[in-house]
């Protein structure tokens, strides 16, 4: 579990989107293995080019996604219309 904590501690200091995505992907894979269930991205969004990270209780009801051009169209085609930007979330 120390590895998960070390990942979490590095996240606020990311300088690039790539670094942020890599850390969150590692975190997601570790939790997936511990729980014995596939990640939300593997299950529902395998063709999305950015990161999709489960939040909350891993039920898929709330996820963090990294920005990519065309993402609103991608998620709306899958029936997900509510996308809240980081700026909107922290206001």
Give the helices and strands, then pairings.
Blueprint: H1 2-10, H2 17-35, H3 40-44, E1 52-54, E2 63-65, H4 71-77, H5 86-90
Antiparallel strand pairs: 1-2
Helix pairs in contact: 1-2
- Ends apart, CA distance between termini: 32 Å
Largest sheet: 2 strands, antiparallel
Q: What is the mean predicted local confidence, pLDDT?
A: 91
Number of helices: 5
- Silhouette: globular
Write a short abstract of this structure.
The protein is mainly α. The protein is 49% helix and 7% strand.
Give a verbal description of the structure.
- This protein is mainly α and 91 residues long.
- It has five helices and two strands.
- Strands 1-2 form a two-stranded antiparallel sheet.
- A hairpin with an 8-residue loop joins strand 1 (52-54) and strand 2.
- The chain is globular, with a radius of gyration of 13 Å.
- The N and C termini lie far apart (32 Å).
